[in-house]
Amino acid sequence: MPQRISDVLFTHHHYDHNGGFFDVFITSWRTHITAERVFEGRSVPMQVYGPETTKAIIGKMRESFEFDVKLRISYNLSDEAGSRIEYTECNEGVVYDKDGIRITAFEVDHRPVYPAIAYKFEYNGKTVVISGDTIPVANMEKHAAGADLLVHEAYNKPWLDALIARYPQHEKALSNPAKYHTTTLEAAQIAQRAGVKHLVLTHHIPAPEANPAAEQAYIEGMADIYAGPITVGRDLMAFELK
After folding, report:
1. What is the pLDDT of residues 206-219, one digit of tens each?
2. So what does this thing catalyse (predicted)?
3. Which terminus of the chain faces fewer neighbouring Cβ atoms within 10 Å, N or C?
């Protein structure tokens, strides 16, 4: 349930990475009542983590919620503390360390979007790294070294090149991803050099259909570079680290 969400981490501030914040903020705060039970809304400030631009950008989004927020406090009697946000801005370093969970932010390169960061999660002897959006950077291999799971963005270059050839009038828009993203083969190289145990691809460009044949075509050539398992990530996937 969304009421369990109290912490949100941003890697950068492209709309596809922060556009859903209003929904997360409100639905985690409001109490939801069904015939079977009551899901109490968040009664503490939302903790927001991100690079140095986060408070300025997300703060403006929060200001735009103010009309809705005031109504929920005065009319629906929602908890006032839940209407607030506490920010942790950090490009490099530990941003969360409690209850055995340690989260480290580190810089990546998604220019012209700057700053952009990735996150390393450590818990119970296991490590997960989430790249955010980036070209290949040495920082990724450094922090992903020996990780149990690396969730890395990737685009398929031959597929993108084919689209450019098919739609030359859109060449500029279609070729831009190559300037600030990582190819599938580059992601495989990063995972192999870092000794990652499992590689999950996200942020697919162009997105393959959700079937085994399309996904296998999307990761073509990666197994020649990276010896571990490769998964084409999909929303709501779950991974158990043993």
Report:
1. 999 999 999 999 99
2. 3',5'-cyclic UMP + H2O = UMP + H(+); 3',5'-cyclic CMP + H2O = CMP + H(+)
3. C
